[in-house]
Design brief:
1 helix, 57% strand, globular, 12 strands, 12-stranded antiparallel beta barrel, mainly beta
């Protein structure tokens, strides 16, 4: 199957799911970065999250049709009562205010909607969020730090919460990266996550794995992820 047919089918699946998480960076970080997929290209970020409350399968196809606007539409499935249930549907738009440069910094702006189509919330519009990622490159991109500041509008509880995140990427090898982060809101305990990212095919096929938990959360709040990221060459008109 050629690349454009592959991603068109993925986008179709995501749109059907929408009919029936705040901002995400390049897998496996939750803290966003000041990067977007290449102009006229698409990507698929997918992963399994294993946790005590039920395992989740995520798929987030995204494309950059204009050169500086990345659009993402996808969601997650969770096994509940022996069956699969659509637990999250997410749409996000992201643009670069200043592209990230080697040994320099970059700034982006993202906004989106997360809808939880479960039995209790089917009539809710969903949670809106706004995020400003700032990324700083050190040592010729061998170490990159990301800082996020944003807000999340909880429509169910009619509350607005401040969100934040701090993450790092450390190159151990041209194909292997150590990633670590902490993130949260202005209330409740923050979370942390750490793991590895590996390029199977440089700049095209990536796999990753992480371990995470809530600070002070114990074994009941821990989670593990295994992810796959696919990036296409430029093909959009």
């Amino acid at each position: 199957m050629v690349w454009h047919q592959f991603f068109v089918r993925l986008a179709t699946v995501a749109i059907v799911a929408a009919a029936c998480r705040p901002a995400l960076a390049a897998r496996p970080l939750i803290t966003d970065d000041a990067r977007i997929v290449d102009p006229k290209s698409c990507q698929l970020e997918s992963w399994m999250q294993f946790q005590s409350g039920g395992n989740e399968l995520w798929a987030l196809p995204g494309c950059n049709p204009t050169g500086n606007l990345e659009l993402t539409l996808g969601g997650s499935l969770q096994r509940i009562d022996g069956g699969l249930d659509a637990t999250n549907v997410q749409f996000q738009a992201k643009t670069l205010l200043k592209p990230l440069e080697t040994n320099g910094y970059g700034i982006a702006l993202s906004a989106g909607l997360i809808h939880h189509p479960n039995a209790e919330q089917r009539k809710l519009f969903g949670n809106l969020y706004l995020n400003v990622p700032v990324s700083v490159s050190f040592a010729d991109d061998r170490f990159v730090a990301h800082l996020n500041v944003g807000a999340n509008r909880d429509t169910e509880n009619n509350q607005t919460r401040m969100t934040w995140g701090f993450g790092t990427e450390t190159a151990l090898h041209p194909r292997v990266f150590l990633v670590a982060e902490t993130f949260g809101e202005n209330r409740g305990n923050p979370l942390f996550q750490a793991g590895f990212r590996f390029w199977v095919v440089q700049d095209r096929v990536q796999v990753d794995t992480t371990y995470g938990n809530v600070f002070g959360g114990g074994t009941g709040a821990r989670f593990f992820t295994i992810g796959l990221r696919l990036l296409s060459p430029a093909f959009l008109p």
